[in-house]
Amino acid sequence: MRFYPSSISAGLWRHRHFRSQDVDFVGGYLQPGETFVDVGANVGQLSLAAAMRVTPSGQVIAIEAHPRTCKYLQGNVRLNDLTIEIHNVAIGTNPECAPAYVAPENLFSIQVFQFHPSRC
Asked: What percentage of the chain carries pLDDT values higher than 70?
């Protein structure tokens, strides 16, 4: 797998064992033609591994709420020439909106606070 430079991809490159159990599980569990949904896809490590295993007859859907991280995910999918359906949305139990906070010290993390309809 190839990744665009980011703090997440640098960590994956420097520490190759990081989350390797997850990637190994995805590669060993999924079969060609199956569907894989990655909620909180981040830069796409698991989505990419799944797409390499299930496509072209299967489908991978990657969901990432953070706009900047989603752009890295989109770039990583293009860089690896894979087909993954990407959604830049958050997933929750309430169909309404929820305020989110992006910490300036960690640009790849989002905190979602308790839902208050009056704040949306």
From this structure: 62
Total domain count, the chain: 1
Which helix (H) or strand (E) segment holds residue 101: the answer is: strand 100-102
Residue 107 included in any domain: no
CATH number, residue 18: 3.40.50.150
Q: What is the pLDDT of residues 50-100, one digit of tens each?
A: 999 999 999 999 999 888 889 999 999 999 999 999 999 888 776 666 666
| Domain with 36 in it | 7-95
Asked, for residue 34, whether it belongs to a domain, the answer is: yes
Whether the predicted pLDDT of 102 surpasses 90: no
DSSP for 47-90, written as a single string: HHHHHHHHTTTSEEEEE---HHHHHHHHHHHHHTT---EEE---
Average pLDDT in the chain: 79
Name the pairing type of β-strands 100-102 and 110-112: antiparallel
Here the contacts of 111-119 (C-beta below 8 Å, separation 24 or greater) are: 112/65
**103 lies in a domain?**
no
